[in-house]
Amino acid sequence: MQKQAIAIVGFVGRSGCGKTTLICKLVALLTSKGYKVGALKHAHKGFQMDCPGKDSFKFKDSGASSVCIISEKQAAMIVDCECSQQMILNAFFDLMRSFRYHFILIEGFKKDPFPKFCFIDRIEQGEEVLQETDNCLGFITEQRAPISSYKNLPVFFRDDASAISSFLLDARLPLL
Questions:
Q1: CA 80, CA 83: separation in Å to the nearest integer?
Q2: In whole angstroms, what is the distance from residue 103 CA to residue 52 CA?
Q3: What is the pLDDT confidence band of residue 1, given thresholds at 50, 70 and 90?
Q4: Across the chain, how many H-helices and E-strands are there?
Q5: Domain limits, the chain
Q6: What CATH number belongs to 7-46+82-170?
Q7: Which of 47, 104, 121, 138 is the most buried (most CB within 10 A)?
Q8: Comparing C-alpha atoms, which of 168, 166, 159 is closest to residue 25?
Q9: Contact 47, 113 (CB under 8 A)
Q10: Is the C-alpha dihedral spanning 45, 46, 51, 52 positive or negative?
Q11: What pLDDT is stored for residue 50 in this prediction?
């Protein structure tokens, strides 16, 4: 099977700024236009995906290093990783290319090299954010900004998912 080139776009900002809500809106808009979209979230702390009492939970609880659940239409995998986060990301990206996804929208991973939108409270924060964040693609503000660009980067209103979706489709995003 031939692998699909995939556009990877991140969304970074403080907790509660609307990243998840915006990503959900973008997923809905892009999939409604026929694009296959994956989503990925960085978990700073551990996480629990499985439910106590389920067979898959029992496998993991018994010591299995990985558990995969597969049905006709879905699959889920929980893997204990003793490798770098970058190695895990690369494996995920490779898997999504195999499944012929067009976009992966990522919440978090501020320091990773893929292009990302930076959520800011005020446009004045732009300079500081640019120094802290690698490969900023543009800014997203909670209120409508009085300007459409800052430091030659676009500025979007957080609730205007349609404009951000159009930008993603029109931009020449690097493909992986």
A1: 9
A2: 33
A3: low
A4: 5, 9
A5: 7-46+82-170
A6: 3.40.50.300
A7: 104
A8: 159
A9: no
A10: negative
A11: 83
